[in-house]
Amino acid sequence: MLLPSKQVVARTLGHIDNNQYLEAAQDYAMRFGWTIIPIGAGGKTPPRGVKWERYQEGARPSDEEFRRWFSRGDVAGLAVIHRDGLCVRDFDDSQAYDHWQAHYPELAKSLPAVKTARGYHVYFRCPSAMYKKFGDGELRVGSGHYTIVPPSAHASGAIYQWMIEPNGDIPIIDDPKTAGLVPASDEHNRELLSKDRLPVTPLNPPLLSESDVSDESDMSDMSDVFDVSKLGLDEASWAAIKSTLPTAAGQRNRRIFNLVMVLRRQGFQSVQQCKPIVQFWHQRALPAIRTKNFLETWTDFLNAWENYDPEKEGRLGRAIAKATALTPPASIAEFQDELLNVVCCTCHVLAIEGKGRFWLSGRALALPLGVDHRRVYDCVDVLIFEGIIKVVQEHSPKRAREFEWLLPLGDEQLLQPSLSEISAGNVGMEDVSK
To answer: For residue 348, with 0-12 CB atoms within 10 Å meaning exposed, 13-18 middle and 19 or more buried, which class applies?
Structure first.
């Protein structure tokens, strides 16, 4: 059987059928010994009920399991688990890949590569490699990670396709750094990041490094580095940016929601007034986020802005804001899904406030996040199947369900607002006294 890129594959979800996924899974397993799992439609996680963790070590899916998985109507792709030293260098955008290809042309011709919706995946083997996150992507390795493979369908409708197919064994790279697959320094990351940003202007100053945005003490003094008034920002806008910047991948969605809340509380009425602030926010957040295209951040901001309702913000809105103080459990973070992280941490906040139990409606949570409620329901299902939460009581008259948090609860002190958050308008004084 030919690998997916040799098939006539239309670039729309409707032209990929489950038989192609089944044949591809069987082919990968037979030819390369890969451990393949299904991916649910519209996302990057396995569909409901598929416990992929059992295949991280030892066990491999049987042909019967393949047939059962890929006969489901909610499957839109497949992924390989990173066992046996299998590595993937994930280039988040085409420019980063082109930069590497130009400097290592012979290697780029020999390593299997996949065109994704936004960038490229480059495959190789290195038993000693370790997972690393970069400004332009990541090095994915280890059985706690998986990578989507062709002919999977991205949520955008694009189809993952092999540009250079595997031919026999996957090549071994002894040192990913000398092969250019691991940046030698943060300066390399900053060079690549700069290619995906607007020209440097007063509203687009030089990028911060990841250490800059992860150190709160440094962030609190950043107004001393440059005169914010020259950037077209007043002190309140700069405080809104500082207090909502993400410090790690997986925080972008909830921090955008926080930014909307702060700006609305500060009295902004027109979304157009906010565009320079959001643009500046995005540039400062680039070292910490996976989404490099400003258009995606701006679209997410617009959705959150339109769905923000101060009358309905209440406890749930504050829980989303407080969720930025928490880190999702490792089993959830491994999915590398920003919305899943937001939903998980929001549930954790509600559980802390409710001493272990809480009520939640998927529709109510989807509204302030600016996403389809079905995506929130999918995230809740993942949390249930991962043993993070369980349903205690089914739907109330308002379609909420009562849940119990099954992991140790975080410290309530984590949820106390800082003075900088109060001054930025993140919380009202009435919240501090509760």
So the answer is: buried
β-bridge partners, 141: 87
Q: How far is Cα 208 from Cα 215, in angstroms, rounded to an integer?
A: 11
CA 267 from chain centre, in angstroms, equals 30
Integer angstrom CA distances of residue 188 from 90, 94, 215: 16, 16, 21
3-state secondary structure of 276: helix
Quick one: tokens of 124?
Answer: 């190789």
CA atoms within 13 A on the CB side of 256: 29
**Dihedral, 335, 338, 343, 344 alpha carbons, nearest 10:** 40
State the DSSP string of 185-233.
Answer: SHHHHHHHHHTTSPPP-TTSPPPPPHHHHH-HHHHHTGGGTS-GGGGT-
pTM beyond 0.85: no
Q: Give Cα separations from 268 to 240, 260, 277 (angstroms).
A: 12, 9, 11
Closest CA to 81 of 22, 141, 32, 2: 141
**Going by C-beta distance under 8 Å and a sequence separation of 6 or more, which residues neighbour residue 118?**
92, 93, 94, 293
Residue 212 has pLDDT above 50, yes or no: no
- Work out the pLDDT band at 303, boundaries 50, 70, 90: confident
CA–CA distances in Å: residue 289 to residues 113, 130, 136: 23, 20, 9
CA dist list (Å): 178 to 104, 142, 183, 184: 10, 20, 9, 8
Long-range contacts of 223-230 (CB under 8 A, 24+ apart): 230/202
What confidence tens digit (pLDDT) does each residue in 356-400 have? 999 998 878 876 666 677 888 889 999 998 999 999 987 655 568
The tokens for 377 are 């329901």
Closest alpha carbon to 165 in 181, 149, 182, 176: 149
| pLDDT given at position 149 | 96
Q: How far is CA 125 from CA 82, 83, 84, 258, in A?
A: 10, 10, 8, 41
Q: Is 342 helix (H, G, I), strand (E, B) or coil?
A: helix
Closest CA to 339 of 364, 314, 373: 373
CB of 159 within 8 A of CB of 152? yes
